[in-house]
Amino acid sequence: MCAVTALAFLVPLAAGLGERAREEAVADAARRSALVTGALAVSTEPAVVRRAVAASGDDPATRPVVRGLGLDESGARADAASLERARTERRSLVVDVEGGLLRLDPVVLGDTTAVVEVFVPDSALAGNSRWLLLLGVAAALVAASVLVVDRFAARVVDSARGLVRAALAIGDGDQGVRVDPSGPRELAEAGYAFNRMADRLDAARTDERELVADLSHRLRTPLTVLRLDAEALESDDTSVGSFSEAELDRRRGIRRIRQAIVTLEGEIDVLIKTTRKTVAHEAGPAMCDVSEVVRDRMVFWAALAGDQNRPHRVSGAQLRIPAPVPRAELAAALDAVIGNVFRYTPQGTAFEVAVSRRDGYVAIRIDDAGPGIANPDRALRRGASDQGSTGLGLDIARRVALQASGSVSIDRARLGGASVVMLLADPEATPRQVSRFGLVGRAVGRRKSSLDRD
Q1: Pairing of strands 65-67, 93-97
Q2: Helix pair angle (290-307, 185-231), 10° resolution
Q3: Core vs surface per residue 42-54: b (16+ CB within 10 A) or e
Q4: Rounded to an integer, what distance in angstroms lies between the CA atom of residue 31 and that of residue 37?
Q5: Cα dist. 145→1, 3, 71 in Å?
Q6: How far apart are alpha carbons 377 and 409 in whole angstroms?
Q7: What does the DSSP assignment read for 328-348?
Q8: Are 257 and 230 in contact (CB under 8 A)?
Q9: Do residues 105 and 66 touch, judged by C-beta distance below 8 A?
Q10: 316-344 pLDDT tens trace
Q11: How many other β-carbons are positioned within 10 Å of the β-carbon of residue 286?
């Protein structure tokens, strides 16, 4: 396309310069012819005419030739028809001949009409050094323009292709793709706009998944209440005893309710687990206030504990304690562990939630006065539980702790039941491995003496 444009520019230019060179060559021939015609007007003496011819130019091939006076006509090129036409019309003529062109100027000398013939060769018609210089400058300018336009077009094409590739990648689900804005101002602005759009799409998708996880989490807490109320109903056993048809229907209805609650709990747990894993992977590290999360979640669990006459206590959650974990993740882990207390201990069983910060770690301890966990190692294994469940509660707590460069451990609580401790790396201190009992305010010797008394 650029080459065609260049040719379209050069061809008219070359034609114009060639026409100008032809006009200059013909004008030069008219000047030389005028020297001879002026001499003829004064005298037709051969000597006078020869001096005029000699004075018109140094090149014998282009010197004028006087026709019709019987003088030396060597080098003449005009045919009889052209000469007769010039005499008859009595005006200057320019005719093409082999090797160039002729200028014929008639001169009326009484009863005789002489014709001065001047030959202009093709070399003179082709132009001179000035014409060649102008053409060379024009060609150089066109070549430079072609180069500039080509580079500019290449930048435009590259920028447009980058936007196309990024848009296709976004359409294929790669939300992390971005473009390097380049090219003309309009395309660069389009690149910046594309990056802003991609950032907003990424944030919107993360918010959407976080909302799904939060909704699932909010469903699980009232579901716990529903399950506890269902467990408080009468037995659903229909295998022992004799029952009326109405009693059988009632017990079967209770069984279906309990089975539906179990199924719903499992589905919600899987949804929370899957969604939060994706959100954590895409959103990267986050921070939250452990004390605030503990206080917020205990508002719900305290109300449920009051309904079941469960003594409870929260300690160490008065001051701000940061932890490198998303707030929703930590809330889900707390609900999972505290929910296990309500699920696997009898109503009226006391529990305690304590927060402490020491030696590079933040510790969250959930103690209960229940029967405890017979095999802590097995309970901590992914998907395993001594209580017949999926083990997802402790698995969520362990995943959150690992995300914060910490760990989860289970031991005997001061209240007599299980003690689940979540260790989270303190972002404002240098982490180092310490005894978790020091973090929750209990000495090893004190724990041993308590076990001996039991």
Answers
A1: unpaired
A2: 30
A3: eebeeeebeebbe
A4: 10
A5: 13, 11, 58
A6: 9
A7: HHHHHHHHHHHHHHHHHS-TT
A8: yes
A9: no
A10: 888 888 888 888 888 888 888 888 888 88
A11: 16
pLDDT of residue 102: 82
Does residue 409 contact residue 436 with C-beta atoms inside 8 Å? Answer: yes
Q: In this structure, are residues 321 and 290 in contact, taking their beta carbons and an 8 Å threshold?
A: yes
Contacts of 419 by beta carbon, 8 Å cutoff, 6+ apart: 365, 366, 367, 410, 411, 412, 413
Tokens read off for 95: 């005719």
Token output for 77: 């090129």
Q: In whole angstroms, what is the distance from residue 53 CA to residue 39 CA?
A: 9
Give the integer Cα–Cα distance in Å for 301 and 47.
Answer: 137
SS3 118: strand
Give the predicted TM-score (pTM) of the model: 0.43
- Catalogue the long-range contacts made by 103-110 (C-beta closer than 8 Å, 24 or more residues apart): 103/26, 103/29, 103/30, 103/33, 104/78, 105/30, 105/33, 105/34, 105/37, 107/37, 107/40, 107/41, 109/40, 109/44, 109/69
- Give pLDDT tens digits for 138-161: 777 777 777 777 676 777 777 788
How far is Cα 144 from Cα 275, in angstroms, rounded to an integer?
59
Which strand (E) or helix (H) includes residue 289? strand 288-289
Joined tokens for residue 120: 């202009």
DSSP label at residue 125: H
Q: Which pLDDT value is given to residue 366?
A: 92
Tracing tokens 């060769």 back to the chain, one arrives at: 121
CB-CB contact of 197 with 190 (8 Å): no
Fill in the amino acid letter for 89.
E
Cβ atoms < 10 Å from Cβ of 350: 20
